[in-house]
Automatic annotation (TrEMBL):
Protein name per UniProt: D-galactonate dehydratase family protein
Cited PANTHER family: D-GALACTONATE DEHYDRATASE-RELATED, STARVATION-SENSING PROTEIN RSPA
Xref: Gene3D superfamilies: Enolase-like C-terminal domain (3.20.20.120), Enolase-like, N-terminal domain (3.30.390.10)
UniProt cross-references to SUPFAM superfamilies, sorted A to Z: Enolase C-terminal domain-like (SSF51604), Enolase N-terminal domain-like (SSF54826)
Residue span, Mandelate racemase/muconate lactonizing enzyme C-terminal domain: 128-256
PROSITE patterns linked: MR_MLE_1 (PS00908)
């Protein structure tokens, strides 16, 4: 089989997505997700101007060799643009292989290790009461794990709490500027989880995202104060470019830690995993260079009892969602999968086999990834540049969003 062509599609059904389609001489095609929220066009150029010319004529079954060709062969390594482009190629090649062998991708990854993939949604509210109501709504829908984020008294807005019905951080126009107070957040959050636990009891897994906003000692303080509410995890407590900062957090709390949705290679994790400074890997198949590289990251993690907890926000397309479900169904050290539903128009552009039932998801048994891309419909949703917000402290200091 030979790769005869490849095209990149940028569309905006509810939000911007970058989709790669690889065509072969046997009529089988594969699709991959290359979406990088707020920097989509950089990945488009990386694919169109540099990767696609080198893909033509190759055997799409040589997934491992092609992965290294685009990782080592570029000379310049790592980074979210590069690794999102490599991921798009990799996902499309696994899709082709599954279709050609007439089997779902999970079968190429070792087969089913479980019947379903436990997922968690985003519950939020402007107040503790509204947040509890939203958590309860998801529990009533059958979720067994729920993330909870709340408005903070004294702050006009905060991460993870939408003003409208859906939560979409990337906005058209110039970046929105938000205001932040760590002090107000730290004083408030333990109260939130005390009341959420009182309301829903001990059996539901609760998760929370700090979104990179604490120093290590602040993270240690929050983790310790949340211990009575036994969270499933505390996510992105501190910017983790400095992996060793987690040594300090670990000293102060037993609250499980998840990190890395902004990471893009295993090298971002080597200290964190080998010193067991974290419990879950947030790096997604889209950010981390595809299924081929995430197999190696998950294998390293399994030696140190670290589990997967892939990022699954709505700015990762249904293609990444499908790839994550195939991967999570097969990998032994699975933890949990984030599942932020996509807008209805996105589900129309990306018809898929995966489905939700009683807190778990299943990728379906269609050959390949079990997701498709409706080019004609996608063309009716043209791309419009959108930026993620920026964040400033109350004194105006530029801070982590
Ligand atoms: C968040 C994301 O889902 C999460 O855990 O951190 O919503 C993140 O803010 C967006 O994916 C950024 O594009
Ligand atoms: Mg997050």
């Amino acid at each position: 089989m030979k790769i005869t062509d490849a095209k990149v599609f940028v569309c905006s059904p509810g939000r911007n997505f970058v989709t790669l389609k690889i065509y072969t001489d046997e009529g089988i095609y594969g699709i991959g997700d290359g979406t990088l929220n707020g920097r989509e066009k950089s990945v488009v150029s990386y694919l169109e101007d540099y990767c696609i010319p080198c893909l033509l004529g190759r055997d799409p079954f040589q997934i491992e060799d092609i992965w290294h060709y685009f990782y080592k062969g570029a000379y310049w390594r790592r980074g979210p643009v590069t690794m999102s482009a490599v991921a798009a190629i990799d996902m499309a090649l696994w899709d082709i292989k599954g279709k050609a062998l007439k089997t779902p991708v999970y079968n190429l990854l070792g087969g089913k290790s479980r019947q379903g993939v436990m997922v968690y949604p985003h519950a939020y509210g402007e107040t503790i009461e509204a947040t509890i109501e939203n958590v309860q709504k998801y529990v009533d829908e059958g979720y067994v794990a729920v993330r909870a984020q709340s408005g903070i008294p004294g702050l006009k807005s905060t991460y993870g709490v939408a003003k409208g019905k859906t939560y979409e951080p990337a906005q058209r126009g110039m970046p929105t500027e938000y205001e932040w107070s760590t002090e107000k957040y730290l004083n408030f959050t333990p109260k939130l989880f005390q009341k959420v636990r009182d309301a829903i009891g001990d059996d539901i897994h609760l998760l929370h995202d700090c979104h990179h906003r604490l120093t290590p000692i602040e993270a240690g303080r929050l983790g310790k104060e949340l211990e009575p509410y036994h969270l499933f995890w505390l996510e992105d407590t501190t910017p983790a470019e400095l992996q060793e900062s987690f040594r300090l957090i670990r000293k102060h709390t037993t609250t499980p830690l998840a990190v890395g949705e902004v990471f893009n290679t295993v090298y971002d994790y080597t200290t964190l995993i080998t010193e067991q400074l974290i419990d879950y890997i947030r790096m997604s198949i889209l950010r981390g260079g595809g299924i081929t590289s995430m197999q190696k990251v998950a294998a390293l993690a399994s030696i140190y009892q670290v589990r997967t907890g892939f990022h699954g926000a709505s700015d990762l397309s249904p293609i990444t969602m499908a790839a994550a479900l195939h991967f999570n169904l097969a990998v032994n050290n699975f933890g949990i999968q984030e599942y932020m539903k996509h807008p209805a128009e996105a589900n129309d552009v990306f018809p898929h086999a995966y489905a939700f039932e009683k807190g778990y998801m299943y990728p379906g048994d269609e050959p390949g990834l079990g997701v498709d891309f409706n080019e004609e419909l996608a063309a009716t949703y043209p791309y419009q540049r959108a930026y993620l917000p920026v964040n400033r402290k109350e004194d105006g200091t530029l801070f982590d969003w």
